Amino acid sequence: MLGSLPEIETDALLRLIAMAMEDERPEKIDVGVGVYRTSDGATPILSAVKKAEKRLWESQESKGYLGMKGDKLFPELLKPVVFGSHADDPALMGLQTPGGCGALTLGFKLVKAARPDARVLVGTPTWANHEPLIRGAGLEIVTYPYYRKEETRIDFDAMVEAFENARPGDVALLHGCCHNPTGADFDHGQWAKVRAIIADKGILPFVDIAYQGLGDGFEEDGAGLQGLMGAVDEIIVSQSCDKNFGVYRDRVGCLFFKAGSPEASARAMDHVMQLAREMWSMPPDHGAAAVRIVLENDDLRQEWLDEVASMRARINQLRRRIAACDSRLAYIEDQKGMFSMLPLTPAQVDKLREDHAIYMADSGRFNVVGLSDDDVDRFCKAVLEAMDG
Ligand code: LMR
């Protein structure tokens, strides 16, 4: 039976990771996958997380099951970080998931359970795994252009038009901050307009926030989502700690949602727990427990905030350096988070890989912080050459 399976292409980004790992050219620049790197190319464990893991190891007395919600304190401690002054909304509930992917899957399955014919409005390009996860939940996708790659700007009019044409009960997938793959976030005015149309058209916002703290700061990066919280009765939020706690392989995420009332949210939670039970039953504990320990101890919390601030400073310093290389790259300074997208064709991206050992996604997306300090000039020169070629 299994022998009859057809060949399929595996995920392009995962293929890129494997190719970059196999390339032994010393000049290799890997700006493919989105992981934070120091100038030496390392992805270190944050010191606050390492200390929390030590405390966990010393204090944990059982590995008995925790239940479908995982660590119950973990979402409660994350709420103020993600939702600011809306954290105490009694209708806001959350549960631990295996990474952001787990939260997205669970959130879209919740939509499918509540409204099987809901459509999901997705701005393209978006993170490569969004569409497979939405389709996997059995929902229809309606795409609209989010970004004009050649003009290096958001196509806000196209998005407004797509939202104007939405049906009440459709879902809009939004990036909370640090848009993956473009780095192009809404400004305040655009968020205000998004809030107004969503509320007016009865669209359910589904906000994916996986890079909070790596753009302008936790408050600034959470402001768009927090503004939405005040404007709608219902919202779904997939959150990831993989990047801002550097716990990538531990798969640490959270699904939050708010229905129209605390009672309606509690009913939704029963559905969510059943859906989780059918997939992973209970989420893995270790990474979320370490994050919980960081958040509940003032000393570790401050150390973590300082470490994120220094990651953010490095990202933004690299952005400024790239932007200073040439006016055609100047837009990169204004974008946010780990990624920006270069106006390159897949053939130009291939050539960068073949001629310069530079690895980036076919779309031209590159991980800004995959560059070491010494790489920047060579990277910019090669990219500009490719753009001219
Ligand atoms: C990325 O976009 O590079 C990361 O979110 C890793 C992934 O799983 O795609």
Beta-sheet strand percentage? Answer: 5-15%
Would you tell me the overall average pLDDT?
96
Per CATH, the architecture of the largest domain is 3-Layer(aba) Sandwich
Characterize the main sheet: 7 strands, mixed
Number of strands: 13
What structural class results from the helix and strand content? alpha/beta
Pick out the low-confidence regions: none
Ligand names: (2S)-2-hydroxybutanedioic acid
CATH topology tier name of the largest domain:
Aspartate Aminotransferase, domain 2
How many domains? The number is 2
Q: Determine Rg (CA atoms, Å).
A: 21 Å
Put simply, the count of helices is: 13
Walkthrough of the structure:
With 389 residues, the chain is of the alpha/beta class. It folds into two domains: 2-45 and 312-388, Aspartate Aminotransferase, domain 1; 50-298, Type I PLP-dependent aspartate aminotransferase-like (Major domain) (Aspartate Aminotransferase, domain 2, 3-Layer(aba) Sandwich). It has 13 helices and 13 strands. It has helices at 12-22, 47-59, 73-83, 99-114, 130-136, 156-164, 188-201, 218-231, 262-279, 286-296, 298-325, 346-356, 376-388, and strands at residues 29-30, 92-98, 119-124, 140-145, 147-148, 153-154, 171-175, 204-209, 235-240, 252-258, 339-341, 358-359, 365-367. Helix 5 (130-136) links the parallel strand 3 (119-124) and strand 4. It is globular. The termini are far apart. The mean pLDDT is 96. Bound molecules: (2S)-2-hydroxybutanedioic acid (LMR). Residues 13, 33-34, 127, 129, 180 line the site of (2S)-2-hydroxybutanedioic acid. Belongs to the class-I pyridoxal-phosphate-dependent aminotransferase family. This is Aromatic-amino-acid transaminase.
